[in-house]
Design goal:
Shape: globular
Low-confidence stretches: 1-9, 12-54, 424-431
CATH architecture: Alpha-Beta Barrel
CATH class: Alpha Beta
Strand content: 5-15%
Mean pLDDT: 88
CATH topology: TIM Barrel
Number of strands: 17
Distance between the termini: 6 Å
Largest sheet: 8 strands, parallel
Helix content: 25-40%
Number of helices: 16
Radius of gyration: 22 Å
Strand order of the largest sheet: 7-2-1-17-16-13-10-9
């Protein structure tokens, strides 16, 4: 890896973003606009399909289809997950909540009000109520009040108002078993490894309902034969005790998520509740845990503690590259500028932990001004920093950026990419995948 050369190019790209890109990094803005269309012809699917593909058979950095393809379709639907796979995602990410009869379904929150059409269903009008989730009162319709049969009558809707609404009401709510079946089927169809990356949503809340997520999740993965360390599975959670319990129950790879509420004007992170700490710490009687915020996890002591029960961390990307208020014209994050990256990735790697960060999005108001309105630039920065995986609402952009990063980083990759891995110069590599070139 020609790291110094690439970092120089990337720094040049960020510094001159406001004045246009160096010719070596970008030809015209239109190049990036059609990169998503080009992607379907770029994605190389050369890894043989098998029932239980080990994690080592995935390209790096991993591209995780966040909630499926949330940038294009309603979150957490089989159609959204299938599109993420079609666009090149290595993993698909179902958030898991429990139904009244104990099934695990893919929804972003136990409250169904924002992600389904339940509010339009007169037969369920009397189910609307208030509930306390992680210390916050919410009103709506909750998955734990519905049987799976009833859930299957609902349809998913897009909860981001600035994203396509044409697909609302078309797609069912899938079970976790259905998501795994899709991943396995698509893996065989595409001839490449495809994994699942479930998140246990609000485990303390579910335990209070008598619907603990942990044994249900472990039972499903065991029944599917995906309960080994090398299975194409990562289990993630914002709570710590949930992962510590899972460590005793499964050999699957575990990931400690690290949250915060917002970024302050000076670039420090805001820890307003309920995003101040894992909720299991909040309800504990342990003064040590109550004195902490999520920030503890990114200290050296915190990383060491995580390593005792998990395999990786999933920090919000602002833990790695933060931003400051700059009062620039533009919507949302476009008004801010980047701070220099910190050393979290390096320290996590030294602690024996991989780092998967979130969430990457294409919209202008979700891109800091330094990226000059081009989402590719954000991926290139994080890929260059050594990130191990990214959660993206737009898997096509993430995969296209990965190809572009490899071209910048390795002349051998560029040759392999155009000439093919079967050429004499590349026969020393055991795999037929150009992404195995370093």
């Amino acid at each position: 890896m020609n790291t110094n050369r690439h970092r120089h190019l990337l720094q040049q790209q960020i510094e001159v973003a406001a004045h246009g890109f160096p010719a070596r990094l970008a030809r015209t803005t239109s190049l990036w606009r059609w990169s998503a269309c080009l992607l379907l012809s770029l994605v190389v699917a050369a890894v043989p399909a098998f029932a239980d593909p080990p994690d080592g058979d995935f390209p790096r950095p991993l591209v995780i289809g966040h909630r499926g393809t949330h940038g294009y379709l309603p979150a957490h639907t089989l159609e959204g997950y299938a599109l993420a796979i079609e666009l090149g995602a290595d993993f698909i990410e179902p958030d898991l909540v429990a139904t009244k009869d104990g099934y695990l379904i893919a929804r972003h929150e136990p409250n169904l009000i924002a992600t389904t059409d339940v509010s339009t269903r007169p037969q369920f009008a009397n189910r609307k109520r208030k509930a306390i989730i992680d210390g916050v009162e919410e009103e709506g319709w909750f998955a734990s009040d519905f049987t799976l049969k009833e859930i299957k009558t609902l349809r998913a809707v897009q909860d981001f108002a600035d994203r396509p609404q044409e697909f609302n009401g078309l797609f069912e709510i899938p079970t976790f078993e259905e998501v795994i079946a899709l991943a396995k089927r698509k893996s065989k169809e595409k001839g490449r490894a495809i994994g699942v990356y479930p998140e246990t949503k609000h485990p303390t809340y579910h335990k209070s309902l008598g619907l603990a997520l942990e044994p249900r999740l472990v039972k499903i993965l065991s029944a599917e034969g995906w309960d080994h360390y090398d299975s194409p599975v990562f289990i993630q959670s914002f709570e710590q005790s949930n992962l510590q319990e899972l460590r005793k129950m499964t050999r699957n790879k575990l990931v400690q998520l690290v949250d915060a509420n917002d970024v302050n004007p000076d670039g420090t992170l805001d820890y307003t509740a309920p995003f101040d700490r894992p909720y299991d710490w909040t309800v504990s009687i342990d003064p040590n845990l109550l004195s902490r915020t999520f920030a503890f996890f990114v200290t050296d002591a915190g990383l060491k503690e995580i390593k005792s029960y998990a395999d990786g961390i999933g920090p919000w990307k602002r833990y790695i590259v933060s931003t400051v208020a700059a009062n620039l014209p533009g919507p949302g994050e476009a008004t801010r500028t980047l701070l220099p990256p910190n050393d979290l990735i390096e320290r996590a790697h030294k602690a024996g932990l991989f780092v998967h960060t979130w969430t990457f999005r294409n919209e202008q108001r979700r891109l800091v001004s330094d990226y000059s309105g081009n989402p590719i630039n954000e991926y290139l920065q994080f890929y260059d920093l050594g990130i191990d995986g990214v959660f993206s609402d737009f898997a096509d952009t993430a995969v296209a950026a990965r190809v572009l990063f490899k071209i910048l980083d390795s002349p051998a990759f560029a040759r392999c990419f155009t000439e093919g891995p079967g050429k004499r110069a590349f026969r020393r590599f055991a795999s037929d995948d150009c992404f195995d070139l370093n």
